[in-house]
Amino acid sequence: MFSTGQIIFAALFFIAFVVIISFSYRKDKKLHKKNYKGVIWILISFITFIIILFLIKHFLKN
Question: How far does CA 44 lie from the centroid of its chain?
Fold first, then answer.
């Protein structure tokens, strides 16, 4: 389905992408901690909301 060259290109692209993203994240880590303080509570609320929706769906289905 894919040629050897395409697979090599995809692998190298993926590795380069991950390396660049990780360096960018490390560079901005201090700034993220300052600007996004308290975001974890929004994530927890969102996950709890999704779980509640699945529970409601499960109990109303039976």
Answer: 14
Domain ranges of the chain: 4-60
**Which DSSP letter does residue 36 get?**
T
- Beta carbons within 8 Å of 1's beta carbon, 6+ residues apart: none
The one-letter amino acid code at 45 reads: S
Give 52's Cβ-side CA count (13 Å radius): 6
Q: How far apart, in whole angstroms, are the C-alpha atoms of residue 19 and residue 29?
A: 15
State the Cα–Cα distance between residues 59 and 62, nearest whole angstrom: 6
Give the model confidence (pLDDT) of 12-60 as tens digits: 999 999 999 999 999 888 888 888 888 999 999 999 999 999 999 999 9
